[in-house]
Write a structure and sequence with these properties.
The structure is a homodimer. Chain A is α/β, with parallel strands linked by helices and about 350 residues long. Chain A has 13 helices and 12 strands. Chain A has a 6-stranded parallel beta sheet with strand order 2-1-3-4-5-11, with helices on both faces. The termini of chain A are far apart. The structure holds a DNA duplex (16 and 16 nucleotides).
DNA sequence: CTGAAAGCGCTTACAG
DNA sequence: CTGAAAGCGCTTACAG
């Protein structure tokens, strides 16, 4: 049978309470006692019963990762980071997808959130886009008094968040293209509901403007982050006549950039000789496409890690409430200088 | 404050025990009482405290998905299926990666397993390849008396499993190629440690043999499921001289098949006119590659779903212990008939 | 068909 | 620095 705290107490010749103090690193225990109890605990392979502890403290040592319809690559990395942080703190991660596609109203969103959280008492919640921007969801969490950390939210609000500076990243990437001599730079926007869409576009716009060029609406096409939308968008851009056609296309994510490469190939344009292409995210597809994509590496794993980290230490040391993490421009073969 | 079972009992004018019976669908409650209690419970938005229930029953209502170093696509679908099944049964899924890369010895594997499970009392465990084939891991679970279901294990053993018939799928896919008139069919094998590798190869071999052809070792190249290994393997195959070179290549997964398409393009072969290509798994990459890949769709989501389903109903109705789920041959543009 | 008592394994005040 | 008591919110026998 699994050892209980009573077993440890008996064998160590102290009270249950003393064992509890040692195990929770509470003060007021003689060093000698502490060492002794620890030894016995290890010997008995004792580990506290989470249910019992949870009942007594009304903590669950569980963090929930809640998301709605995310990209698999994105969520996997967030999840992995969150799990690692949880493990370091003795917490565990439960994953709770919300199926919100059809639930447009505030009430429906709040309700879906409620029904998940009512059943599962978690100590904290990690929210990814677009959920992290839903007032209804945030309100529900607040009513329930459950801490949350938002990942890459649209607006900085009261709740803490971790994110990256999408605008600056897009700015730098556009500058990289400009430095290679490109002046006609196409841009494919992301999904209209996504926070990142506007920020990345803003970065593109300011780099173009700062270079003394003007942003031409012919060069900006709406996409929705899907490969298919990238196909349509790149056709629009590449069917422009010679001398007007962009010499470079900056897609708001890698899937759409992969589509640009594919369509360019079909239309007889060589990448990067005839057309430079870059993406955003640095997902695995960036390396599978040939030529490999120049893209922005997001600190996705780290965002998940930091979000969970913050939740597991919470109240005690509120070192950093919100933070932007570093990104990295990955230079690969899909961009070249203008001849 | 959150309502407790006592609140419900008081308001309904019955004992705690009666409420408990109603909530757990136990017999021996008057219909009238049952209806009344349910109404009150709903009114109070009551939901049981999992920690308390767990302490009393020594059940946690938690299922763990434990894996080591899997493909992101694979594990995401397993996970999603498992979560859906858990939700239907009032369970929750905790995800626990094991970092076993360096832990070669049986003891290390067992230890890693132990240290996760000691801290987290779960009611069941889902094991994916290659973990599900580790005797050390299975033994540890058995010692701890934790139920487990294996996903796509190498050998049918005592523990229940869900899987698909890789051999038959590869057999049918090879037959499809043969029917298109191909006789020189290359095969790229998967990672040596993976259960599926041998099975898929076996299916290829028997289809070739059944067609009265002989399996040529020149046509069989070792890969490891990675895109890179596919690049190397396909070069070997495609550098064979005219008249000897395969007219079709069957790669053991989609990543390697994507590599074949990419290398073929670079070497000036048109897919599917000069070379037919097919993969296995039907991951998203199968549709992104152009031409889209003919491949085998694995019931990955369903495997996760069934595995969790089995764990959440366990003891009571042991309807099916182990089962093979259906696969599907997805016909797309990467295969054509020999002219 | 219903209920009062005891207990699951911890922790939180409270004493000493 | 240490411990005895009470309680967290449920369920499992056991009575009736």
């Amino acid at each position: 049978m699994k050892a209980t705290i009573t077993d440890v107490a008996k064998k160590a010749g102290v009270s249950m309470k003393t064992v509890s103090r040692v195990l929770n690193n509470e003060p007021n225990v003689a060093d000698k006692t502490r060492v002794h109890v620890k030894a016995i605990a290890r010997e008995l392979r004792y580990s506290p019963n989470l249910a019992a502890r949870g009942l007594a403290t009304s903590k669950s040592y569980l963090i929930a990762l809640i998301y709605d319809n995310p990209s698999i690559n994105y969520i996997s990395h967030i999840q992995r980071g969150a799990i690692d942080a949880c493990r370091e703190a003795g917490y565990h991660l439960v994953v709770e997808p919300l199926y919100l596609e059809k639930a447009i109203s505030r009430e429906e969103k709040a309700d879906a959130m409620l029904s998940v959280l009512e059943k599962l008492p978690v100590d904290g919640v990690i929210l990814t886009p677009p959920l992290c921007d839903s007032q209804a969801v945030l309100q529900t969490l607040d009513d329930l008094r459950i801490d949350c950390v938002r990942v890459a939210p649209k607006k900085k609000g009261e709740q803490p968040f971790v994110g990256m500076d999408d605008e600056t990243a897009a700015f730098q990437m556009t500058q990289h293209l400009l430095k290679q001599g490109h002046e006609r730079i196409g841009f494919i926007k992301g999904h209209v509901n996504h926070a990142a869409t506007d920020l990345r576009y803003a970065g593109y716009v300011s780099a173009i403007s700062e270079a003394g060029l003007k942003v031409s609406s012919t060069f900006v096409v709406q996409g929705d982050f899907s490969f298919e939308s990238g196909v349509i968008a790149s056709r629009i851009l590449l069917e422009l006549p010679d001398g007007v056609r962009p010499t470079a296309i900056f897609a708001s994510n890698d899937d759409m950039a992969a589509a640009v490469v594919s369509v360019a190939g079909q239309m007889g344009f060589d990448v990067p000789c005839d057309l430079s292409v870059c993406g955003f995210d640095d997902t695995p597809i960036a390396r599978i496409v040939s030529p490999a994509l120049t893209t922005v590496r997001q600190p996705i794993y780290k965002m998940g890690y930091q979000a969970a980290k913050q939740l597991t230490q919470s109240s005690n040391d509120q070192t950093q409430i919100s933070q932007f993490l570093d990104f990295e421009i990955m230079i690969r073969a899909s961009v070249s200088a203008i001849a």
